[in-house]
Amino acid sequence: MRSWLRKHPLLGRFWPALGLIAALLASSAPASGAPADEPTAEVANNATVFYHTGTRDWSAYYLHYAPTGGAWTTVPGVAMEAACDGWVKRAVDLGDATGFQATFTDGSGTWDNNDGANYQLGAGPIAVRDGQVSVSDPCGAAPDPDPNPDPDQNQARIYFSTATLGWRTVNLHYRPDGGSWTAVPGVGMTEACPGWVTRTVDLGAATELTAAFNNGSGTWDNNNGADYRIGTGLTTVADRRVVPDATDPCAGHEPDTEAPTTPTGLTAEVNGVGVVVKWDASTDNVGVTGYQVTLAGGPGGTAVADTTSTVWSRSGLEPRTDYAFSVRARDAAGNLSAPTAPVEVTTGEAPPAPAAGEPIGTDPREDPIYFVLTARFFDGDSSNNRGGSQHERSGNASYDDPMFRGDFKGLVEKLDYIKALGFSAVWITPVVLNRSDYDYHGYHGWDFYRVDPRLESTGATYQDLINAAHAMDMKIYQDVVYNHSSRWGANGLYTPTVYGVQDEQWDWYYDTPEAGREYDPLEEDAEGRPYNGDLWSTDEPTGNTCVNWGQPTGSTSPEGYRIYHCQWPSPTSGMFPEEYYHQCWIGNWEGEDSRSCWLHDDLADLNTENAEVQDHLINAYNRFIDMGVDGFRVDTAVHIPRIMWTRHFLPAIHERVEERFGAEKAENFFVFGEVAAFVNDKWNRGSVNHSAQFFTWQPRQEYSADDAEAVLEEYEHENGLGTGGQPTSDNAFLDGNAYHAPDRGRFSGMNIIDMRMHMNFGDAANAFHNGRDSDDSVNDATYNVVYVDSHDYGPNKSSTRYAGGTDAWAENMALMWTFRGIPTLYYGSEIEFQAGQRIDCGPTCPLATTGRAYYGDHVEGEVTAGDFGEVESASGAVAETLEQPLVRHVQRLNQIRHAIPALQKGQYSTEGVDGHMAFKRRYTDTAAGVDSMALVTVTHAATFTGVPNGTWTDAVTGDTVQVTNGTLAVDAPGQGNLRAYVLDTELTPAPGVIGAAGPYLH
Question: What start and end residues bound the annotated signal peptide (predicted)?
Fold first, then answer.
């Protein structure tokens, strides 16, 4: 459930009229003052390309290009001509095409090919400056508003401040009173001095104009929708404050001619046919704005690339080839530092495809889980980073923080960090190829048969990650989605055709269709826009089922764009066939329609009662089973009826694992479902069909062989039985002090996330007592996945990451690591990362301000793990992170849990226990030579009566007690601390004190 509007389900019901505004138009917004009835201009298939020369110092400039679907010009291309100070230009006739690929060269073997990706350009005026593309004419003249101008015509001299915006390009879109608007995006403004751009406008007889400003990349300042009113004379506009008759903000300014310092510490690391180049930051009297990397060698000659980072990578180089790299720093005035001395490397062989793995196959209760959003954890390869069409609108651009930032390479590099924390399983977000405007989280699957290339790198594929984790005895749990595809359907099953118009309103979104060309997220254009030509048709397609195809609705976007029918996915428009997709919006989240209707337009609800849909999903996930993943976390499990899980999907998983890897590994392949019951009672508002524990059981009677009928029959039958008619279990409970073999005969194959404990973790004791209350209705609660907060919610359905404080976090952890279930930690919680920040706000705010912020800064540096929970060596920022109090706390908790089988797999009881959060646990497997029993109290004092006599040793302090009368009393250890007295049994001796005393466990 990752759509950013997921928490507001009712919004989805109004989408056919208004929803297009929120996501589709986010990156293009002309001034709201533009007249709604202004005629649409004809799109001319030509372009004028402006190229900035200020940081190139080439003796000549050529444009080498290929119109979409056409051939490239002959190398070196066509010569560009001088345009204005710092710019050259070239007009391009595109013929029937509406876009083209381009590179730039000096004609002598030096190239700017957009860091190896080529520039993806469209029609109209286009400015390319230091790797950034904008729609702008930086040299053009404003149109004459009056065909017969008066020699004494009025002028407006406008200065616009970019100091707090960071825009490299600024366009002025305006209309003199009584005149017409300039064509979007307006006319280019020129740099006047640092932080200011200017433009003088001839007003004719008018004395005022209406204006808005934009960066040529879809981001606008239109005075919060009111536009700006500007008169004659000199006017400044800064942070929405208009000052008429102002003084020149650049008067007396001395041009910045001081270059930045030369970067130092340049290194280049080769990995097969890839290279990562790093350097230390430069300094400048005003400020460094970026770097220019020069690559020499190989068949491509010399290439220059622009970056704002001090790390640059390139994959896919020629094998066994010499390359040299040098770097120069750049400031806002275009001054370049001297280049570094080149660093030379020789690439190796292209790595062979990794061998398929196999699951580790041990009991999943032995493995505490670390949960990461792969794209937000650690960036191992910046070349696969993608900001997407919402990069600027979201605010991510201002943080230099593309939504797709972390990757498998970064995760492989930081497995030692996760192991040093003590975790032996890693839950990662979905890996399949996604498709939406904001899909870094992975829950908008479009091609279930492909791994998203924004996560992979040379030598760091998904298979490489699985193999690397297994080599460290760590498991990979893959997040999977069966309930829904992306808003654009599922590739290979059904992809809808939408209505698109390539006019001045929509040409930024809809591309020209090309035969055989399909969506590839690595082929974004310079504005982060993916290719959408495979989705749309201006003409009504043969066999169209969408109602009112291409007809205008009565709605427009806030900017005045007309919205058309069939332009955006909807279950009620006829765009999706009912054999593959359900046809309604959810009205009752605890009703039958929650399994048969759409959650949101980003989440097209699959008809999982259809055999073709079932086969599509089963075969897709079989491929990942074959790769050796250790389990599946199932997203939105509650929105698929239980009988579809028990009849089709769960048996298919078990059968595939058993077929490939044997019965034991099939038994331990861990499937745990998200059954989102956000209430604090045992049953979700009395609806058994929507309660988490319900999904751990097999159906108790036969239903129709027709799946569509069976789901209704089961719903009605179980709803009629109610909460009192549900099965119960003692699988999680001791029989006195004795462990007994659990009865798993009625187990469905799906374990669950413990939503009840999660909802109540605002207070550890509350979570403990609520969890106990539900355990008799779960098939086996010792398999429950337990966490405090996640990528969706904090406790009590909070929209912010947990902020209860360090002591409360320590107490929650102490309980999770000793009570029944599998402790799970959301990335960064070990340092209270982003505590109190809203977890998710979609593209309405920067990711850096949310609970899904990038974590990599905290784990930069080197770390080598010993055994689980042990650090052999660490340096840099990660060394500081590993010294934080909760890190040391969770390390020791993991050491203790790994050493005591009772705390991993034991049944529990509170019989004979007098304490606030106290319990006894035992696990016995005589065939394996294990009999482990522990008495645990968290924070508070406790007394245990009726326990076996013998020697009990506390794993925290090493205190040893000889029990002769069946009673053991424990003093209160303090908040976040615990005592775990372990019985010295014939089969399993007590381990004694485990780990070193820390800030809480002492």
Answer: 1-33
How far, in Å, are 57, 420, 466 from residue 470 at the CA level? 51, 15, 6
pLDDT given at position 811: 98
Question: In the predicted model, what is the mean pLDDT of the chain?
Answer: 90
Number of compact structural domains in the chain: 6
pTM: 0.74
pLDDT for 206 = 93
Whether residue 274 is found in the same domain as residue 169: no
Q: Are residues 611 and 725 in the same domain?
A: yes
How confident is the model over 555-606, as pLDDT tens digits?
A: 876 567 788 899 888 999 999 999 999 999 999 888 888 989 999 888 999 9
Task: Tell me which residue range forms the domain holding 531.
Answer: 499-560
Query: Cis ω on the peptide bond leading into residue 185 (within 30° of 0)?
Result: yes
Say yes or no: 694 and 653 in one domain.
yes
Residue 318 lies in a domain: yes
Q: Are residues 239 and 287 in the same domain?
A: no
* Contact (Cβ atoms closer than 8 angstroms) between residue 536 and residue 513: yes
* pLDDT exceeds cutoff 70 at 773: yes
175 bridge partner residues: 210
Would you call 809 helix, strand, or coil by DSSP? helix
Q: Residue 231 is inside which H or E element, if any?
A: strand 228-231
DSSP string, 488-534: TBBTTTB---B----STTTTTTPPPP-TT----GGG--TTSPPP-TT
Q: What is the pLDDT of residue 2?
A: 36
Residues 342 and 462 in one domain: no
Q: What percent of the chain has pLDDT over 90?
A: 74
Query: Are the C-beta atoms of residues 335 and 405 closer than 8 Å to each other?
Result: no
**Separation between Cα atoms, residue 546 and residue 573, nearest integer Å:** 6
Residue 692 belongs to domain with CATH number: 3.20.20.80
Q: Residues 691, 806: one domain?
A: yes
pLDDT at 202 over 70: yes
**Structure tokens that stand for 826 in this block:** 């959301």
Category of 377 on φ-ψ map: left (φ > 0), alpha (ψ -120 to 50) or beta: alpha
Measured between alpha carbons, how far is 419 from 409 in angstroms, rounded to an integer? Answer: 16
Residues 127 and 181 occupy one common structural domain: no
